[in-house]
# Entry
Amino acid sequence: MNTLINHLIEQLLEIQKGKVWIGRSYENILNEIDEHVAFVRPVKDLHSVAEIISHLTLWRNEAILKIRTGKGSKTDDCEENWLTNEKLKVKGWAKIKLEYDQSLSELTDLLKKKDDRFLDEDYYDTDFKGIYKYRFLINGMLHHDIYHLGQLGIINKHLKKKTA
# Structure
């Protein structure tokens, strides 16, 4: 049975591209972002859009690794967790966005091959240093995406004020 897995996939996709009850989806916001503003920190204590998207991609790729191998390789302290705008500019906004989109497709494709029993299987979480159920990982990815979606909404409002 795939009821829970399908529901989680649906939620992951809904906040990315759908009509979300909480406001705007990632797609809505990211469609307004271009190379000129992707790397701007609109307020000193806020990340840039590029920094957040890179951060999300890292953790989504880490989730993919955990699903494939049963353990991850990154921790919150790793350099790739929050790459600087200077390093991200070298990569370019188009590539950052492409890697982000690819990681979503890869994660959802991988989950579509699983059934609900998978959510109760164990994996080793390098960052939390312990054994957890995959439901913790997948729900955590969803929570993480929603958390940063709110940040992107705030950043986007600040960026619009700066360019108006």
User: Anything to note?
Assistant: The mean pLDDT is 94.
